[in-house]
Amino acid sequence: MWPTLPDDEWPVLSWEEWWDQAKLETKLAQALAFGRRERAMRSLNEPVTDFIWHYYGLKPARFERWQPGIGVRLGTPSPDAPKECQELYAQMGRRKYFKQDEESVSVDLSAWQARRGGVAYDWRELLKIIQKREPFFGCLGLHEWAMVYRDEKRHPLPLRLGVEGTAKVVETLPIRCTHYDAFRFFTPAARPLNHYQPSEETIIECEQPACLHQNMDLLRYGLALEPLIPTSFMLNVFAMALRIRQLDMSASAYDCRACGLAPVAIETAEGKAIYIEKQRAFSDQAKAYRAQLIALLEQVV
User: Fold this and answer.
1) How far apart are alpha carbons 225 and 59 in whole angstroms?
2) What's the rounded Cα separation, in Å, for the pair 179 and 42?
3) What 3-state DSSP class applies to 74?
4) Domains in the chain: how many in total?
5) Which residues are paired to 98 by β-bridges?
6) Distance between CA atoms of residues 30 and 37, nearest Å
7) Comparing C-alpha atoms, which of 9, 8, 12 is closest to residue 77?
8) Residue 292 lies in a domain
9) Residue 299 to residue 301: CA distance in whole angstroms
10) What are 104's strand-pairing partners?
11) Cα–Cα dist 30/19, whole Å
């Protein structure tokens, strides 16, 4: 997927070729962002899907901005090219970490490496460690339950089992959350119940490839690697993150039926089996995307 050639040897795409791709992928991005954009205009918030936008600091305008990624140069549009094509080409020539010559515009990889290479090295090492680690499929999404245990709710949704029923699940099932960014939102009463005590200092030791939130975080890495990452990749990891979030909330202590999600009752044997089956599928999908990010970072760091 990623180039091995020096950037001055990247192939030049004709304007017709890259413009067709840009139009298609922009429409796909707009479709994914439509609901969030409409709700933002009315100051509304949807607790399941809007989490993705808020948590990753992502705005629809940024998500819809087309990126070719590294490995290609975009050929100059001819005078009879559509006005929108010519405007996009000119705009990309002015973007940060892009460069333009007489025949093309492309990512300025050297400029990006000079500013971001050090941080990217740390990302690469973390992703490589996670990729090699044995996945653990026994957490059952109890992090969401631990976030409301004996405390206030985080979302304007009812608790599916009520306050006492929720507490019983937390106190009965083993909590084995390895993700620091979830653990830090545990209620004070729930923290001692977790088998792990992850912190910023132990992220490398704790993160593992079956974790729903770690796999959602592939979207975070992709955003941080812009503009090296093409829109095609970002569409895929965003769609996966959205589906993961839906499982995350379906299996949570909340009753999300008003949001169109049927409960995954992880307190039952059937619910446990459903959760683990879906978690395995996401783990496999994320492994493929993580491998692509690692391959990219091996090329640029």
Assistant:
1) 16
2) 33
3) strand
4) 1
5) 107
6) 9
7) 12
8) yes
9) 6
10) 75
11) 16
- Residue 226 inside a domain? The answer is yes
Which residue segment(s) compose the domain that 266 sits in? 119-300
DSSP-derived letter for residue 192 is G
For 79-123, the DSSP string reads TTS-HHHHHHHHHHHHSTTEEE-SSEEEE-HHHHHHHHHHHHHHH
Question: Residue 105: inside a domain, yes or no?
Answer: no
- Collapse the DSSP code of 220 into the 3-class scheme (helix H, G, I; strand E, B; otherwise coil) and give the result: helix
pLDDT digits (tens, 9 = 90+) for 214-243: 999 999 999 999 999 999 999 999 999 999
Length of the chain: 301
Residue 227: asked if its preceding bond is cis (omega within 30°), the reply is yes
pTM of the model: 0.95
Backbone phi and psi for residue 254, each to the nearest 5 degrees, phi listed first: -80, 150
For residue 132, being part of any structural domain is answered with yes
List, in sequence order, every residue forming a beta bridge with 105; answer none if it has no partner.
74, 100
Two tokens at 292?
Answer: 């692509």
pLDDT one-digit tens code per residue, 135-194: 999 999 999 999 999 987 667 899 999 999 999 999 999 999 999 999 999 999 999 999
| Residues 184, 154 contacting (CB under 8 angstroms) | no
Instruction: State the helix-helix crossing angle for 109-132 and 269-300, rounded to 10 degrees.
Output: 140
